[in-house]
Amino acid sequence: MATEPHATPVIPGDHAGAVAQESHEGTAAAGHESSGLPQFDFQWWPGQIAWFLIVFAVVLAFMRFIVVPRVGGTIDLRESQIAGDIAEARRMKDEADAQAQVAAGEAAQARAAAQKVAADARSKAQAEITARLAAEDAKLAEAAAVAEARIVKARDAAMVNVTGIANDTAQAIVAKLTGKTASAAELASAQAARG
């Protein structure tokens, strides 16, 4: 602790003594105070530059050996992960494309099989329809033949009756017109001449 210089007593009304006292105190205080900020004082610059270089070297070493490798490792890890994800996505896309092609081939085969089954079913149904139509045509032809035979038989029976009726009618007409009855031979010769 510094001792202050002994102050001389100031006598009241002694102006010159007070000024001397103040100038003495001002010089004593000036010896203890610095002349401004130490950053701007040239006498401190070598120490400040040394500490600046030390702190700069420590920060540079910290960045170079700790921060940059970690950040670089993280970046490399991210890049490799992204590259791996892209490769996996391409592989999955290729697999999906291959599966889509297989599915398209199977769908085409299924479509072809379905068309074949439909065509077979159509041809089978057509064959069954043709067979049924042929059977129905045969039944109808047989029924038509039976009906034709009945018609012929009925016509022949009707013709026999018609001939008899015609002979009876002719005899009745001849008898009515001539008053004589015609014989069966006369009626037969008249029929032969007409037919």
Q: What's the helix count? A: 3
Please compute the radius of gyration using only Cα atoms: 72 Å
Q: What structural class should be given to the helix and strand makeup? A: mainly alpha
Helical content class: over 70%
Largest sheet: none
Uncertain runs are 1-6, 27-32
Shape: rod-shaped
Order of helices and strands: HHH
Number of strands: 0
Beta-strand fraction estimate: under 5%
Mean pLDDT: 80
Ends distance: 181 Å
Summary of the model, kept short:
With 195 residues, the protein is mainly alpha-helical. It is 84% helix and 0% strand. The chain has three helices and no strands.
Question: How would you describe what is shown here?
Answer:
- 84% of the residues lie in helices and 0% in strands.
- The chain has three helices and no strands.
- The protein has helices at residues 15-32, 45-178, 184-194.
- The radius of gyration is 72 Å and the shape is rod-shaped.
- 0% of the residues are buried.
- Residues 1-6 and 27-32 have low confidence and may be disordered.
